[in-house]
Amino acid sequence: MDAKEKLESFGRMWYQVFLWCLAGSVIIHCIAACVAFSALRKHTRGRFFPLLIIFIGFLYPITGGVVTSATIAAVYRTANITMPVYVAFLWGAGQSFIGFLLSFSRILATL
């Protein structure tokens, strides 16, 4: 896919944003799993916790990422705006980064 190519259909926009969200989430969760494995490698049951972290890395994009990516693509399609490929990357990676910030900031624990 050419970097200057523009995405025009809803399906292509949704798919590109979703793939970048999935890739970003998996990368972030794999790094977290490596840190958890190095910290818990001698624990009897804790060494399996990184598997759960990697599972969660796939779970969010498949559930919430699908919905938010479809919403972003629907807004672009309804407004009749073509989406450059790099904007799809920014939306998808941005979703993963916002999820990372929310989980790291402990804002949800104060609710």
From TrEMBL:
<comment type="similarity">
    <text>Belongs to the TMEM170 family.</text>
</comment>
<dbReference type="InterPro" id="IPR019334">
    <property type="entry name" value="TMEM170A/B/YPR153W-like"/>
</dbReference>
<protein>
    <submittedName>
        <fullName>Transmembrane protein 170A-like</fullName>
    </submittedName>
</protein>
<dbReference type="GO" id="GO:0016020">
    <property type="term" value="C:membrane"/>
</dbReference>
<keyword id="KW-0472">Membrane</keyword>
<keyword id="KW-0812">Transmembrane</keyword>
<keyword id="KW-1133">Transmembrane helix</keyword>
<dbReference type="Pfam" id="PF10190">
    <property type="entry name" value="Tmemb_170"/>
</dbReference>
<feature type="transmembrane region" description="Helical">
    <location>
        <begin position="52"/>
        <end position="76"/>
    </location>
</feature>
<feature type="transmembrane region" description="Helical">
    <location>
        <begin position="17"/>
        <end position="40"/>
    </location>
</feature>
<feature type="transmembrane region" description="Helical">
    <location>
        <begin position="88"/>
        <end position="109"/>
    </location>
</feature>
